[in-house]
Specification:
Oligomer: single chain
Bound molecules: adenosine-5'-diphosphate
CATH class of the largest domain: Alpha Beta
Structural class: alpha/beta
Strand content: 15-25%
Radius of gyration: 23 Å
Shape: globular
CATH topology of the largest domain: Rossmann fold
Strand order of the largest sheet: 3-4-5-2-1-8-9-13-14
Helix content: 25-40%
Largest sheet: 9 strands, mixed
Number of domains: 2
Number of strands: 20
Distance between the termini: 17 Å
């Protein structure tokens, strides 16, 4: 079997969030299982210079984009046995400062950019010497890919078009465009209807995939249930309910080769569950680095996040505003995004310099240091398809304080559910009061050395490796090709 993954982000080449990590790790795990896997993704600005092993273009092509032909080429990297990355080189579309936007404004031609990516992926599938039997798309950017493949089969134009699997990493981002963008798909107008990509008078990329992919997955079992409800369905719950039999929740895994505490160049001190002195040393080092009082007896709370409404950052700021300065805690946030949220964290840091540090920006190495230093990790998401940071936190011995939603609910065990296996603290209501209550439970836990050690060890030894999860995708591919 040969599987082709298609995604607009791929770690370590491009990343704005968990999608990049998940696709890269899934590809590696499938290859590791002995299955041939290719990944197709854009060649964004800077990638070729940073990764000189990427071969120069050898395969040039033209794709119809509405009334004109647009040229591009593939550049390829043999990353590991069984694993090839294919970069779509189209400078007009992808050689830009951002992946999707600049200065918080989406590029006006995002529909064209990502239809081009979907078409390039299918061109690769069609003309590859060993054609993939499954094309697995990820998120709205490649939402029209299942539709294009389906059309190839149904129209007789490409009867052997591959079967498609589509994974929703975040239903809130759908790729909604004015109807005239449909012309760029070069599909018949009759194909634009309520059972494909039409949604409330607009072209909705994600809906196209939800209607026409052979199988759908999302990144946690809990989120798979949630998105079939009006509360979490973002207007697409009807389609998702209709396709309920084809929808599976498979929790993302963690790439423990990257997210490890024992051989990690990003960490000043190595540690593991038997050698926790290294964790204490990382805490002291980060406190010193960030100008916080170096004090082992104050619980340190971390948060590394896109600063968005989804992540409940406003709840964190509100809860902190009430708890400080009285509560003996330190809090470090690393994030970028909504300017209002950036400001509120910077204001807290200015008001409580001995307790709050706000680093505005994206810094992968600092993210590791914060995870390694933190006693707790705060993640009060309003919704969370899977979430990776809580799983990184578990391995790093930072006890997660999370809202019980999506993947957070699936990956963290609250003592009320199982005292023996408890790994974190959960709360339910989307209010800063509920978060504060959970936060105070964490402070109390920190004061109980034995219980804290118990939580920490449970988390550090929990296994969220990709190999296990990749097996579930392989079973699904098999089912799509050969039936249950
Ligand atoms: P999402 O994909 O919704 O943003 P996840 O928890 O699934 O959330 O994944 C976020 C990923 O992005 C994690 O690897 C996290 O460490 C990383 N990340 C987010 N913001 C930053 C930042 N400001 N600096 C460094 N890494 C970040």
């Amino acid at each position: 079997m040969h599987v082709l993954l298609a995604a607009s982000e791929l770690h370590p080449f491009s990343k704005t969030g968990g999608l990049a990590d998940a696709v890269a790790a899934l590809a590696q795990a499938i290859a590791h299982a002995g299955i041939r896997v290719s990944v197709v993704t854009p060649l964004y600005r800077g990638i070729a210079g940073k990764f000189p092993a990427i071969r120069p273009a050898t395969w040039r092509f033209d794709l119809p984009m509405g009334p004109k032909l647009v040229g591009g080429s593939f550049r390829c990297l043999e990353a590991a046995p069984n694993l090839t990355y294919w970069f779509v080189d189209q400078p007009d579309y992808f050689d830009r400062a951002g992946l999707y936007n600049e200065a918080n404004r989406d590029y006006p031609d995002n529909a064209a950019r990502f239809i081009f990516l979907s078409k390039a992926a299918l061109l690769l599938a069609r003309h590859h010497p060993e054609p993939p039997s499954i094309v697995h798309g990820h998120d709205w950017q490649v939402g029209l890919l299942p539709l294009l493949a389906y059309h190839g089969r149904a129209s007789g134009n490409w009867p052997s078009a591959p079967r498609t699997v589509f994974t929703i990493h975040n239903l809130a981002y759908q790729g909604s465009f004015a109807v005239d963008a449909w012309a760029l798909a070069n599909l018949p107008l009759g194909w634009f209807h309520m059972e494909s990509a039409a949604h409330h008078g607009r072209l909705n990329f994600l809906k196209g995939a939800l209607c026409l992919a052979d199988a759908l997955t999302t990144v946690s079992p809990r989120y798979a249930e949630e998105i079939c409800t009006p509360e979490y369905g973002c207007g697409l719950e009807g389609v998702l309910r209709r396709r309920g039999h084809d929808l599976t929740g498979i929790l993302n895994g963690v790439d423990y080769a990257e997210w490890n505490t024992t051989a990690n160049p990003a960490l000043p001190h190595a540690y593991d569950s038997f050698h926790l002195a290294g964790k204490a040393a990382n805490k002291a080092a980060l406190q010193a680095e960030l100008g916080l009082p170096v004090d082992a007896s104050v619980p340190l709370f971390g948060n590394i996040t896109r600063l968005t409404d989804q992540k409940g950052c406003d709840l964190v700021a509100e809860a902190l505003g009430r708890m400080l300065p009285a509560a003996r805690i330190q809090f470090v946030v690393l994030g970028t995004g909504d300017p209002v949220l950036e400001k509120s964290f910077l204001a807290l840091a200015a008001e409580f310099p001995d307790q709050v540090v706000a680093r505005i920006g994206f810094d992968a190495k600092l993210a590791h240091r914060i995870e390694a230093a933190s006693d707790f990790y705060v993640m009060p998401s309003r919704f969370e398809p899977c979430g990776l940071n809580q799983m990184y936190s578990l391995r790093y011995g930072a006890v997660p304080v999370v809202r019980a939603t999506g993947g957070l609910d699936d990956s963290v065990v609250d003592p009320r559910a199982d005292a023996d296996l408890a790994t974190g603290i959960k709360f339910t209501a989307i209010t800063s009061e509920a978060l504060e209550q959970a936060w105070r439970k964490a402070i109390a836990l920190f004061g109980d050395t034995v219980a804290m050690h118990h939580f920490r060890l449970n988390g550090m030894t929990a296994d969220f490796s990709w190999d296990r999860q990749a097996k579930r995708y392989l079973d699904l591919y098999h089912e799509v090709l050969h039936g249950p």
